[in-house]
């Protein structure tokens, strides 16, 4: 069996399996799963790049990935669509590379003060009324007009 350079290590697959509650399996199975995931991911990325090139664009969009997934009869991505550039920052340390999207810090005090929240009513009450009493409908404001055909059509 030829060795595939896997972007997923068997430790990554093992950690994902344990977080999903999958029972421990043999180490060889983790490597096979990592190779399979890497091959599928590589094929989807290549198809996505074909859609990007055929659209004469230089940036890969989530729509390209959705089309590549549909091409392979896979379910498309949900929840991420962006026409704008998504900036990622790069950090490295201890032999690991990490790309992340920076989150801006939010001062909760300023945020809460900027909200225009309506005042909560001081007194709350519940009022009930009968639609009909012993078969007759009382003429009160809450009940519909008995002369209106909309409510009493048979």
TrEMBL record:
<dbReference type="InterPro" id="IPR004823">
    <property type="entry name" value="TAF_TATA-bd_Histone-like_dom"/>
</dbReference>
<comment type="similarity">
    <text>Belongs to the TAF6 family.</text>
</comment>
<dbReference type="GO" id="GO:0046695">
    <property type="term" value="C:SLIK (SAGA-like) complex"/>
</dbReference>
<dbReference type="InterPro" id="IPR037796">
    <property type="entry name" value="TAF6"/>
</dbReference>
<dbReference type="InterPro" id="IPR009072">
    <property type="entry name" value="Histone-fold"/>
</dbReference>
<dbReference type="GO" id="GO:0006367">
    <property type="term" value="P:transcription initiation at RNA polymerase II promoter"/>
</dbReference>
<keyword id="KW-0805">Transcription regulation</keyword>
<feature type="domain" description="TATA box binding protein associated factor (TAF) histone-like fold">
    <location>
        <begin position="6"/>
        <end position="72"/>
    </location>
</feature>
<dbReference type="GO" id="GO:0000124">
    <property type="term" value="C:SAGA complex"/>
</dbReference>
<keyword id="KW-0539">Nucleus</keyword>
<keyword id="KW-0804">Transcription</keyword>
<dbReference type="GO" id="GO:0046982">
    <property type="term" value="F:protein heterodimerization activity"/>
</dbReference>
<dbReference type="GO" id="GO:0005669">
    <property type="term" value="C:transcription factor TFIID complex"/>
</dbReference>
<protein>
    <recommendedName>
        <fullName>Transcription initiation factor TFIID subunit 6</fullName>
    </recommendedName>
</protein>
<dbReference type="GO" id="GO:0016251">
    <property type="term" value="F:RNA polymerase II general transcription initiation factor activity"/>
</dbReference>
<dbReference type="Pfam" id="PF02969">
    <property type="entry name" value="TAF"/>
</dbReference>
